[in-house]
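> example.struct
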């Protein structure tokens, strides 16, 4: 498989420094060599340009969303890189950066695939809008925006209109949801699997449920988006919004292996690795281990 490695050194969506250094850190950890060992050809496409914006200007384009214009610009450029990669049968591996980059990735993938599914590994729903957000951080809005909800500048990134159907979104590991997000989940009938529910039913049963729904809906492709806070907070010091009672590394790998066997995963984000919060490279090493594992099966 040909892999286009795309770095997105963006922290504006989280409004916390450290995520912007993740692409370079994982390159230093030899991510390219590891992927190559699995028989893949890796093209390092460098980093998407992220303009420098002064902190004083974070609300200059919207009173309730930080760095809106710049996040839209970065995601639009990312979307084109993703769409171009897929057009030429390359697998775009996007290394964030915060999870606002998921909007650009989904937008690019949905330009190529009409019937796209999104599997979102995350402690959070990322379904807020400017009406429901408490923080103003856009990394809490990419999924709602991809569904066509919220501010039009986000909803219309790269091209106008909805990028993914709500019923084709699967959020795995969610355990910290805002009230507004719960309303959207209920109204839009989004598939959400909490750690408690996953352990009650078993990963195999959850995976089979997801795969059956993918089959029933004739899904063309999966965009997989992995946020490090999917894992339990005791495992990942190097992420900005850790949440307790999360999933284990073994459980993450079990999901990866099962979903990879569908042969539908065509693009992937790996986000929210904050190098400034990491301790003795522990989160960096977990990141490399997880990426190494999934690309063994893709």
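> example.seq
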């Amino acid at each position: 498989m040909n892999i286009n490695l795309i770095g997105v050194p963006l922290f504006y969506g989280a409004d916390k420094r450290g995520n912007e250094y993740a692409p370079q850190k994982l390159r230093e950890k030899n991510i390219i060599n590891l992927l190559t060992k699995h028989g893949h050809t890796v093209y390092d496409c460098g980093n998407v340009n992220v303009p420098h914006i002064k902190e004083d200007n974070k609300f200059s384009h919207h009173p309730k969303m930080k760095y809106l214009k710049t996040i839209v610009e970065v995601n639009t450029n990312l979307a084109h890189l993703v769409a171009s990669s897929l057009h030429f049968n390359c697998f775009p591996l996007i290394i964030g950066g915060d999870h606002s980059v998921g909007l650009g990735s989904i937008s690019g993938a949905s330009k190529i695939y009409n019937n796209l599914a999104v599997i979102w590994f995350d402690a959070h729903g990322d379904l807020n809008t400017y009406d429901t957000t408490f923080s103003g951080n856009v990394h809490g809005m990419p999924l709602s925006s991809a569904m066509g909800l919220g501010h039009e500048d986000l909803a219309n990134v790269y091209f106008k209109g909805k990028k993914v159907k709500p019923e084709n979104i699967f959020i795995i590991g969610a355990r910290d949801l805002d009230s507004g997000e719960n309303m959207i989940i209920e109204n839009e009938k989004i598939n959400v699997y909490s750690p408690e529910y996953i352990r009650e039913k078993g990963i195999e049963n959850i995976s089979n449920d997801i795969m059956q729904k993918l089959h029933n809906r004739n899904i063309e492709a999966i965009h997989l988006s992995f946020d490090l806070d999917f894992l339990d907070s005791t495992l990942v010091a190097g992420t900005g919004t850790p949440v307790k009672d999360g999933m284990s590394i073994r459980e993450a790998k079990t999901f990866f292996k099962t979903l990879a066997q569908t042969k539908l995963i065509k693009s992937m984000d790996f986000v929210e690795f904050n190098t400034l919060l990491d301790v003795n490279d522990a989160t960096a090493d977990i990141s490399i281990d997880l990426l190494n594992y999934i690309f063994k099966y893709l």
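> remarks
The first strand starts at residue 2 and ends at 8.
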